[in-house]
Inverse folding.
């Protein structure tokens, strides 16, 4: 089961200069809760934006960068796959487990027809950003959780944790 895990602002923006445009500790905690113990699929730029390899999660990185593959060849927490075809084969071998797609845009676009669950943090604010989440046809999904939070001493913006599950029979095609 493929689950997207991301946060976006009111304009569907998700990044600025390779990083999140906001500081929202509650979202970081939610991200950790959703991804802990599950493989995370990401592109190279998302991977290098992390301060380190995140503990408790296997990092599946889509990248043709041979230096990156060589650097992590002996690290069993990181698997670098050089093509979308190899990623799809890996996903086929792991389709019975929760796999989290965490970005960036190319990963979200590539897996749009395979994603089963959406774990979105909707931030009720707008930020300066240069990256926008690909358009998702929400008519193919059912909202099963909407948990709203007002700003507090640690989180400056109102936000909601939204969970959507794909409706039966709405996958367009299996391999992207």
């Amino acid at each position: 089961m493929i689950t997207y895990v991301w946060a976006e602002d009111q304009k569907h923006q998700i990044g600025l200069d390779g990083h999140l445009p906001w500081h929202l500790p509650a979202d970081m905690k939610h991200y950790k809760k959703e991804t802990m113990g599950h493989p995370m699929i990401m592109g190279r730029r998302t991977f290098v934006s992390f301060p380190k390899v995140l503990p408790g999660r296997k990092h599946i990185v889509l990248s043709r960068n041979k230096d990156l593959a060589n650097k992590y060849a002996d690290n069993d927490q990181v698997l670098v796959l050089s093509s979308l075809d190899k990623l799809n084969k890996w996903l086929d071998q792991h389709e019975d487990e929760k796999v989290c797609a965490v970005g960036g845009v190319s990963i979200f676009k590539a897996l749009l027809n395979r994603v089963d669950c959406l774990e979105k943090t909707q931030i009720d604010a707008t930020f300066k950003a240069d990256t926008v989440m690909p358009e998702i046809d929400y008519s193919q999904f059912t909202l099963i959780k909407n948990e709203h939070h007002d700003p507090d001493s640690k989180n400056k913006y109102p936000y909601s944790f939204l969970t959507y599950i794909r409706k039966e029979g709405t996958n367009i095609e299996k391999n992207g």
